[in-house]
Each structure stands twice: as structure tokens, then as C-alpha cells.
Amino acid sequence: MKINSPILFIEINKYDYIFAAGNTHENFQFNLIFYKKIPLIGIRNNRFDDLNLILKTIKENVYLIEKKLDHIFKDVVLVIDNFNCSLINLSGFKKLNGSQLKKDNVIYIINSLKSKIIETEETKTILHIFNLSYLLDKKKINNLPIGLFGNFYSQELSFLLIDTNDQENLKKVFDKCNLKIKKIISKNFLLGIEVLNDKIELETFLRIDIYDDYIDIIFFENSALRFNQTFNFGLNLIINDISKVTSLKNGTIKSILQNSNFTEENIKNDFVEEKFFTGQNFRKIKKKLLCEVAQARIEELAEIVIFKNVNVKSFLKKDLKIFLKINNQFNEKCFGNIYKNVFSSNNKFEVKFLKNYSNDETFNNVNSLVQYGWKKEAVPIVQEKKSIIARFFELFFK
User: Are 297 and 241 in contact (CB under 8 A)?
Assistant: First the structure.
């Protein structure tokens, strides 16, 4: 069975660098052959802090991969999560006056909206462009309606932007590593793809990822990324609140949550076991108290992130599906029912917890995006200049 040359992937997220490599068999099956995670250095608060340190880290680890795989990489696919990316939604239109919508009309709309972004967002560079919606005579069409007749056509696009300085710094680092950046993929885009590939028939949803010190929300509509937002607080607030109320140390609280049973049946009258009070005087503290403090903070988080967030209000429709990813196993284990009840707004929305996707699944998705693209990602096409003779023949023979 023939195997293609390995592909190098590097993810730069808020906590780590992830170095990975994989190859594709002749039957198009992807195989992850290398994976390594190291703590993030050289980047602080979503900004480059030390280019030389970043360069040294990447160069050393790429060399180790090349040595192990006996292969020299010429390019790299980047997945980024810790830069200040932004989303802008714009609509363009074309008056058809009863005529047929043509490919050139769509190309014109995409390129004109792209030009507006370039003119108005001078310090930004376009990373992804998504097709959000197609309207023909005010009627929503599921797919690009090329060939259909109508009077008025409009198309909404979503532009995901990265700071130009960040993109140039990334290019500078990888140029010095003798690596060409083949493609940059937003981690938020990838997180949405995970859900869509796992939940067949689903196109619109809200995903909430809750980490120790930040929360990410993304909204996908019609299989396209429409909105994302990051909040600089997370699960640590719950631990801090419990600590204030109970006077327990944060480490003690984490140990209790990791090693205790918090089912509904036993929290009513159960007390925190004495074995957890290492270096502290034992006190009778009901597990129910820990849950009540957690619930109060989770309700506050949900209000800030969703229910009182003006940016999200228009997305909160009755049939909305919300996917939660609690990136702390003991927090989900102990307070899972609280999260589900709070974020469902008393069963108004359907809430499900996401599984832990494997490294193979993640980079298989990345590879698919690179090799085949995404069905709702629009590629702005610059029309070729044609000679008079070429236009003449195209007119009569197309």
C-alpha cells in the first residue's frame, strides 16, 4: 500500500505547542505517526513576547521530528488559538431583473466584499472566508443557487481575520526554520468541524469550552463559523469561591472533587471526609455546600457568557443545540448536572457534553481541511483578464 510523504502540523494554543506529523495511504486513510506537546513559551497574552525563544523551540522540535521520521519537511500546517483573531459578517447583492444567477455574479460579490475588508481593516489579514447564507428574492436557499432565475440575489459572508503583524511574525519564524506555511487554520474553526463531523445532520449550534482560566464560545450557522468570543475567566473562579466560603485550600478542594462521590443521593447529608484535611483542622463541611457554591458561580458564568451577552442574544432560539466541553474532568464529574441544568435554562435548550476527541481525530480533521477544503469556506477568485478573441470565443462556445 503506497503512503504519501509525511505532513507536518504545529498547533500554537493558549497553553502549549503541539508538534504532530501524519501521512495518508493510497486509500485516503490518514495516520498520525508523531505527537508531542510542550508548554507554551515566547508568547504571552496572545502576543509575541520573544521571537528568538519561539524560533529556538520550533526549530529544535522540528529537527527532532525530522530525525525520528528520517524526513526533511519543506512546509507546515499551522493551527492557531492564542492570537487576537476577529470575525466580521458582511452581505453583498446582485440585481438580476429576472435573469439567471451566474458564477461570475458570485465571484464578483465575494471579491467586492473581500476588497471592503482589505480597505477597512488595514491592520488585519483574512484567514478564512465562509459562506453564511444565500437569499434569492428574499427566500433562503440551502446551496449556492447558480443557474436559478430571480430578481434579487444576496449572499452573506463571514471573514475571520488575524492581525497582520502576527501573521508576518509567524512567517518570519518559519522562514528561519526553512519551512513554508502551507495553511493557517483557526482552532475555533477546527472545534466546530469536530462537532459537525461527529454529529451528522447538524449544521447550527453553540459550542462552549470552559477551561481553568478562560472560556471560549463559538457559534456555527449552516456549517459556517459566524461568531466567536473569549472570556478571561473560567473554572478557577468556582474553586476560589468554594475556598472563600469553606476556608479550604484550593489544592484541598481539587483533591476532594477528584476523589469524592458527588451523586445526588449522597450529597444531601454527606460530609467531606477527614482524610482530605491534611495540615488543616478537620471541620464538618457538607458536600451539599460545595455544590451550592458551585451552582451560584456557574449560574453567574452562564449569564455573562450567554444569557446576558448581547452578542449571543440573536442566536438563542428554541431549537438551539448547545455543546459543553468542561476541560477539567473532576469539575464535570462533580457538577455535570448543574452545568447541564444551568446552560439549558431549565430545559429551554438542548445541552450535551462533548467527548474528548483523540489526537488522531483532531489531526485527521486538520488534514481533511488542507487536502479537501470545507464545504462552506469561500475562496475569493480573481477573474482573469481575457483577450478580445478569448472573450469572443467564450461568448459563442460556452
Answer: yes
> 99 is written with which cell numbers?
435573469
- Name the grid cell of 375: 464545504
Task: Pull the grid cell for residue 130.
Answer: 465562509
CA 181 remoteness from chain centre: 20
User: Across the strands, what pairs with 351?
Assistant: 322
* Of residues 9, 17, 10, the one with CA closest to residue 40: 17
Residue of 128, 101, 104 whose CA lies nearest to 117: 128
For the record, the C-alpha cell of 176 comes out as 528561519
Helix (H), strand (E) counts: the chain: 11, 16
Q: Look at the pTM and tell me if it is higher than 0.90.
A: no
Q: Which of helix, strand or coil describes residue 352?
A: strand
Q: Where are the alpha helices (DSSP H) in 70-186?
A: 103-120, 164-176
Distance of CA 105 to the CA centre of its chain: 31
Kindly state the helix (H) or strand (E) to which residue 395 belongs, with its residue range. helix 388-397
Looking only at the bridges linking them, the beta strands covering 180-186 and 75-80 are parallel
Alpha-carbon distance of 167 to 123, in angstroms, equals 11
Spatial distance between the Cα atoms of 98 and 332, rounded to a whole number of angstroms: 56
pLDDT digits (tens, 9 = 90+) for 265-278: 667 678 888 888 87
Q: Are 133 and 90 in contact (CB under 8 A)?
A: no
- CA distance to 91, 128, 134, 247, per residue, from 373 (Å): 22, 11, 20, 53
Q: How far apart are CA 83 and CA 166, in angstroms?
A: 7
Length of the chain: 398
In angstroms, the CA 202 to CA 196 distance is: 6
pLDDT digits (tens, 9 = 90+) for 44-58: 888 899 999 999 999
pLDDT of residue 265: 64
Q: In what order do the strands lie in the sheet with 152-163?
A: 86-95, 152-163, 124-136, 139-141
CA distance 153 to 21: 44
- Is residue 88 a contact partner of residue 161, using CB atoms and an 8 Å limit? yes
Q: Is the Cβ–Cβ distance between 130 and 376 less than 8 Å?
A: yes
The residue behind cell 453567574 is: 300
**Residue 284 DSSP SS3:** coil
